[in-house]
Predict the structure.
Amino acid sequence: MSGTVDRQWFEGQVCLFEAIRPECEAYTQSLERILKHAALVVAPHALVQSRTKSIVSFAEKILRKGYREPLVQMIDLCGARVIVHTRAEAHAFSAWIKKHFRVEEVAEHDPAKHLRAREFWYRSVHHVVQFRNGIFPTEDVPVEPGALRRDLRAEVQVRTIAEHCWADVGHDRLYKSGFLVPARLEREYAQMAALLEAVDEACTRIADAVTAYQTGVAGDKSSAEAEHELEVLELVFSKDPGNAGLAHQIARLALRLGKWDRVTALVKDFARRPPHRLRLCAGIALCEQHKGDPGGPGHREGRAFLEDAVRADPEDVEGLMALADALAGAGEGGASAARQWYERAFEKDPANPRVLVGCVRGRIGQTKSASFLALLQPTLDAAIRRCRDQIEAEVNLPWAYFQLGELHLLRGQPYESLAAYARAVRSGAEFMFDAALAVVDQLDGASGLPEGADWVRRLLLLGKAVRADAGAPAHLAGLRSQDGPDFGGRVVIVAGGCDESVEARMQAYGTLLRSTFATFTGTILSGGTSAGISGLVGELAAESGGRIRAVAYLPEALPAGVAPHPAYECYTAGARDFTPLQPLQNWIDLLAAGVRATDVKLLGINGGRIAAFEYRLALALGARVGVVDDSGREANKLAADAEWWSIKGLVRLPVDAMTLWNFVEAPFPPFADVAQRREELARCLHDEHRRAKKAENISLAEWEELPPLYKESSLQLVDHIAVKLRYLGIEAFPAGDLRAGEPFTFTPEEEGTLAEMEHGRWNVERLLDGWTPGPRAEGKRRHPNLKAWQELSAEEKRYDYNLVRQLPGLLRQFGIGLRRRKAGKA
């Protein structure tokens, strides 16, 4: 600016601005309120700032810029800034602004469009906006109409955090400083700009990846854990009933648990009009709650919520899918409308697992053909990877497992499909099985559908039966084998290698299995043939004199060269060759007969792909599964499968006869002779152990200070005393004061057997509690002695020997004598 300042003009312009500035303040506050409401929808973590130009800033700018009509020419008398996490959020917010304001296209400024290849980096997008007629106020944005002056303009900047850092730290200082910036500072600033641009792009990639994963509640919590978390969140929310983020978190968790009423109540009790994401949850809940009456008012209200949510954010794939799912179940005409929404979602995110399977189901339902699936293999593979990423990140569980199972089924990979569905069954709620069964029913009857749909249906029906937990489930009655077995007593499944390639190796387990089942009375379910592990089980049954009943499920036609073992009671499942139908029918008959899955054990040795499914099926239904360490093939793979090792009830059993015997025979009844003084005897055993360790200069806690884990271990040891004695043919009897008489002593052979039994008991106790072999680490539940008896050093065995030697004397103190049972006495 040159020449003399027209002071009269200057004073006049400042006075004019001072007069209208209160109106600008009200305008700015309304703008900020509107943008904050928009953030709830578009970018929940965005930071919204606003300001009205100060008198000083206005005065300086009109002097320096040379405006003649500053109140007309200046576009930033009112201003706001929206700081988001990613470029995608910045684009979404800019789109929202263009939709809800009148934006001066001439003034809109996006510097990124003008950057040359070697330039960095002022990329904040500036919008010059005015309020439009009929947009605000709305139910979502309750602002005072008087503050919405359409003759005023405002500048709204939209930028990412990294862009804000660049601008806030340097841009304003360097380019609004009024002096020439030295070249050295220019270079340093350019370097910083390049680094921040890389950071900005990395943040966007990470956020996009997380968004791709997180379409549901994070984590694979048990129902009890999720219920507790829901209770905690609801208590916190009661102190802040307008917290939209917390309300959405509660709603998603309630959806995960199938608590439809909790979601709808949350929406009704929300302190203001719920944001669209909360209305989306309410729509899902209402449609699920009333899916049995798709034409009724509840389902219609749910669809209205979903339509409202989609209007609020037509780019939200989850909303599009929820509306499509609701319409698909809405009776006549719904399927056609649903396909349109599925296809719209597919255009936006074709590798989204839920989107892809929805589109596939819709097309199969329309054409009754699955022949087009061959063309979708690359997309199916991408969706499978997306599911795997979700599972690795522990989000969208257990739905990610259900979707993974369906994708593998459509991809023609039935065994991978069963493995995924089995993992879903383990953690899914009952209502989820109905949804998954509806999917399989929708695929039923389509020509060209890959093998495995019937296997999946039976697996889901088993999962539903276990979750119902009401005795023999009625919905399995129609699938039960005709004249199927009635199971009485204990049931153990023995699965493993029967292939001729491992026949010689499997025969080496014969002695181990004889020791494992030496005292077992009950039913063993196995393969039914004379080969491998199933052949060894047949021999056990034949040699047991009726103590062991062997039951098997075989296909109608056995493969060439395969013969059934004559000791088995056989039932038919499947028409040709061995498939997952045999173990599935095994479990259908068990549950239909009223056997609880938690009362069943499975012992796994080696095995191929059917055995791999048997292991996972048993775990999914709640049985205890022990795989013999280093037995090869699928048993080893399961031992290394991180997805299953978090499941309580899966153990790696060392090749140790007494460990396997304890695994099969447990749980054990309490020692009746000391039932009233059980804890007292456990305390005595612990005190003896403390004295032995004290002699080695090792300090142990007293009983009162002992952690619950170790108290329970001592109590289980007491319970096991009767088991050890019975195994050796020694009986306990109440005999008053025996202290004066000659004490009972075990023979060296008996001591050795009892010590080995105690180590096997301890192994099983720890393994079932989630401990693993390794360097000792109490917090990580690792112990170096979780191994076979023969692998222990003499020093490590000494503890077990000392313990069994003390038993006769300790029992004498409790008035219990010991004697060897006479031959022939039961």
